[in-house]
Design a protein that fits this description.
The structure holds 2 protein chains of 2 kinds. Chain A is of the alpha+beta class. Chain A has helices spanning 12-20, 26-33, 37-49, 64-68, and strands at 22-24, 53-56, 59-62. Chain B has helices spanning 52-63, 65-70, 83-97, 112-117, 156-172, 194-200, and strands at 23-26, 29-32, 40-45, 73-79, 105-107, 131-136, 142-148, 186-187, 206-209, 212-215. Chain B is elongated and about 65 Å long. Chain B starts with 22 loop residues before the first strand and ends in a 5-residue tail after the last strand.
């Protein structure tokens, strides 16, 4: 269940993660998005690669590009 | 005629080892072992999708998914089938039985993970993974390994019981006797010297003799 679909759109779980990423830790995002930690960790890797999310000191925020996907 | 014998030496993981790292395609995206850090994890292999015993096992794991979660434990299946096969099988199980498969399944077509974990037993099957079960603790250490042959489905209650036993041992520094289940008396660790052997008989434990004493656990 990759986050980013072949047509460039993102999955519902990726949208939940991006919506929850407001300078939050992975644990906080997991709770808010109601997704298991392992799913959040793997999805965040993909979202970081796609520049849809930013990380600073272990906290994650959705980029402008990421907000445009919501 | 030259005969080339290819010997592939793979050390099977043992209890107490760090669980082998992997990055694998699964039915829920690309996952690494490190993604499960902080949780207990059951990695279990099955011979093939769309086969009868495996289907009963997947349904049994799915039906106990909440019980595993209550114990901070995730589930991760594995076979050499592809991601589309895993997805089709999970959808078929849900359609035919109403049981949703909520956990990811590794598509280990190149057998990379299976080799690292010793899930391939050529005497049992040349091509398929056996029914191997690995319980990994939140620090990534292998704590339990179970192997079942292709014809014998696993007992998921036994896996849950082992998780309870290991978590109890870790928390209270005790051991668990044969057929122990949560709530039963636990075994007090063996005394390390004569003084502690003599002292323990005065502790009020239920002792057969100085080397076998049990006690009730006061759960926090």
């Amino acid at each position: 269940m990759p986050c980013i679909l072949p047509d460039g759109n993102i999955t519902d779980s990726a949208k939940r993660i991006l919506s929850a990423a407001r300078d939050n830790s992975i644990e906080e995002i997991s709770g808010e998005a109601n997704l298991p930690l392992f799913r959040v960790r793997s999805s965040i890797r993909e979202l970081l690669d796609a520049n849809l999310i930013d990380e600073k000191d272990g906290r994650y925020s959705t980029t402008e590009e990421g907000k445009n996907k919501l | 005629m030259d005969v080339e014998t290819k010997i592939e030496e793979i050390r099977m993981p043992l209890l107490g080892d760090k669980a082998p790292d992997f990055e694998a395609q699964t039915s829920q995206g690309t996952l690494r072992l490190e993604d499960f850090k902080g949780s207990w994890l059951v990695i279990f292999s099955h011979p093939a999708d769309f086969t009868p015993v495996c289907t009963t096992e997947f349904m049994a794991f799915a039906q106990l998914y909440d019980e595993f979660h209550k114990r901070n434990c995730e589930l991760l299946g594995l076979s050499v089938d592809s991601v589309p096969s895993h997805i089709a099988w999970a959808r078929n199980i849900e359609e035919k039985t109403g049981v949703k498969i909520p956990f990811p399944i590794i598509a280990d077509g190149n057998k990379e993970v299976a080799k690292k974990y010793g899930m391939l037993h050529p005497g049992e099957s040349k091509t398929e993974t056996v029914r191997a079960t690995f319980l990994i603790d939140p620090e990534g250490t292998l704590r339990l390994i179970l192997y079942y042959p292709l014809t014998t489905g696993r007992n998921m209650q036994e896996i849950l019981r082992c998780i309870d036993a290991l978590q109890t041992s870790d928390k209270y520094n005790v051991a668990t006797p044969a057929n122990w289940k949560k709530g039963d008396k636990v075994v007090v660790p063996a005394p390390i010297d004569q003084e502690s052997a003599e002292a323990r008989v005065k502790e009020g434990y239920e002792c057969v003799d100085w080397y076998l004493c049990k006690k009730e656990l006061k759960e926090e």
